[in-house]
Design brief:
- The chain has about 260 residues and is mainly alpha-helical.
- It is about 60% helix and about 0% strand.
- It has eleven helices and no strands.
- The radius of gyration is 30 Å and the shape is elongated.
Length: about 260
């Protein structure tokens, strides 16, 4: 009875995943049958299960590595697309990189986590990817006045970007940032005219960074504004076109640039 209890105890341990050599003494030559045969069978089964679990763990590691590689490659591909897009227009070249960096600085000022900032960095790089299908005329100088047809074309780019990227599930909230970066707190944004409480914070951050960079960059129809001039416009429309807290945060981030212009907040 004692050996039966011991054998059952060892079998129970193995069943619970506690693989040890406790089964080995029960396989010794002097052990009575049928305990010895049962113990040997259990021991062989344990070895095979351990081997299979090891193989599975190695396969999981390989799959995780493959998934990481695929993710990195996909990000590189769409980032290269965004870079190629900006290169079509010398006036916006480098725009996505600047927006991405400034967005991250604003996010830090707002106290967002490292993971949230990483998603925002992606959103900044990809926010204009929907312009990839724009005709060349949209990248040509067309003066300060823009035709209604061009406006409609331009206003489709957030949704087009979302459609291009929607299958890349690892983009997480960055996908919505791309979709919503032209929405407004007053509900007059595009493409969906979302109310303020439905616009993700990341998209609101992108909106102020995007607008600031556009205002301070030389364009065919206007000379780039100074830091102070751009911030004044953002502050004037704070709460309507741009989020109040995001405008406050970008003002804080750009304090050193204001001082270089000889202006104190």
């Amino acid at each position: 009875m004692e050996k039966t209890d011991r054998l059952l105890e060892v079998i129970e341990d193995i069943a619970n995943g506690n693989y040890s050599n406790d089964i080995m003494p029960l396989t010794a030559a002097g052990e009575p049958e049928p305990f010895r045969s049962i113990a040997e069978a259990i021991g062989m089964m344990m070895v095979k299960v351990e081997a299979r679990e090891y193989q599975l763990s190695m396969m999981i590691e390989e799959l995780e590595l493959l998934q990481k590689t695929i993710k990195q490659n996909a990000i590189q591909v769409v980032s290269a697309m965004a870079t190629a897009l900006s290169a079509r227009d010398k006036y916006t070249e480098g725009h996505t990189a600047r927006v991405s960096e400034l967005s991250c600085q604003v996010a830090e000022a707002l106290g967002l986590s490292g993971e949230e900032i990483d998603f925002l960095r992606l959103g900044g790089i990809l926010h204009d990817i929907g312009k990839i299908g724009f005709p060349d005329k949209l990248f040509q100088a067309h003066g300060a006045r823009v035709s209604s047809d061009l406006v409609k074309e331009i206003e489709r780019h957030p949704e087009t970007g979302w459609k291009i990227l929607k299958e890349l599930d690892f983009l997480g909230p960055a996908l919505e940032y791309v979709y919503c970066h032209h929405e407004r707190p007053d509900g007059k944004g595009y493409p969906r005219h979302l109310p303020d409480d439905e616009i993700p914070l990341g998209a609101k951050i992108l909106a102020v960074a995007d607008a600031y960079d556009a205002m301070t960059t030389d364009r065919p129809y206007q000379k780039g504004k100074s830091v102070a001039e751009a911030l004044e416009i953002l502050q004037k429309m704070s709460g309507k076109k741009w989020d109040v807290k995001c405008v406050e945060a970008i003002t804080e981030v750009l304090d050193d640039d204001l001082k270089k212009e000889g202006i104190e907040k």
